[in-house]
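Feature request disguised as a bug report, sorry. It would help if multi-protein outputs had a clear separator. Right now it looks like this:
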Amino acid sequence: MNTPSSNEQHHFVLSHHDEAAFKTGGLRSYSSYRDLGVAEATNGLARAHVIRMIEPYRPELSVRHRHDVQFQMVYCLRGWFETEFEGVGRRRLHAGSSWVQPPNIRHTVVGWSEDCELLEIFIPAEHETVSDA
């Protein structure tokens, strides 16, 4: 895992809501992502994006995995989102709630509402996701 030095220059980035900014092709095929410019502003120290679920939940979309990060936080903007975490069990976010996932915790997404939208923040911006499949 390569994390930039905190001494590297950060700069100002402003991100306004724009429906056209939501892109597919990210980690999850059932989601679209709107990058908030945090990786650019921090020279790769962190990343933040809004995730919108674009397909209904189906059990075959659930794959146990982990993220090789130093920090990961998820905040539910709309709807709900549920995940099962190794050693913790099932947890459900509702609009206005959040969780912080320990680095490399194995987990499986187990459901979401049709209107689910999440804010995800993690360090570093680029990291590996390892699937158990």
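(second protein starts here, but nothing in the output says so)
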Amino acid sequence: MRRRRYTSDLTRQQFKRIKALLPACKAGGRPRKVEMYEVVCAILYVLQKGCTWRNLPHDFPAWQTVYGYFRQFQQDGTWEAVNRFLLRRTRKKAGSNPEPSAGILDAQTVRCTPQAGLRGVDAGKKTNGRKRHIVVDTLGLLLVVFVTAGSVQNRVGAPILLSILAKRFPRLIRIPSNS
């Protein structure tokens, strides 16, 4: 029985583009029983809807399985590889060099609930929450995100963000700040 389609689902063609970037089955282990297309669609569902893992609809694989793959992809760099692949592909399609040479740095403080982990008060904005330090390329495509407590000043977060950026995008030479 086929499950109903969600707005967060990838098409099969979109999935084919990133399938090679997903980790293969472990050698010598049990064969994988879950279809990776369904796992990726389930992860995208949770990320788009903002629901908890336990509230994943029942027509997806078990939430524990989906969450396990999400964590694995986070730890082994799969998400970063997918982002880099899509970034290069999109830039090439737009007629730009696949590797960006210029970007823009910005930071934004976002409120969060008291139950959240990392948080602090941004004195300038008087906001209690987290701060997203980001760099985008000239097309507005996300290059790097670094999340800190809201109390971390931009002059402290920016050098950390720039050191991550230098490792991932060595061709990047021009980075004006939006602040």
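Even a blank line would do. Unrelated, but nice: The chain has five helices and four strands.
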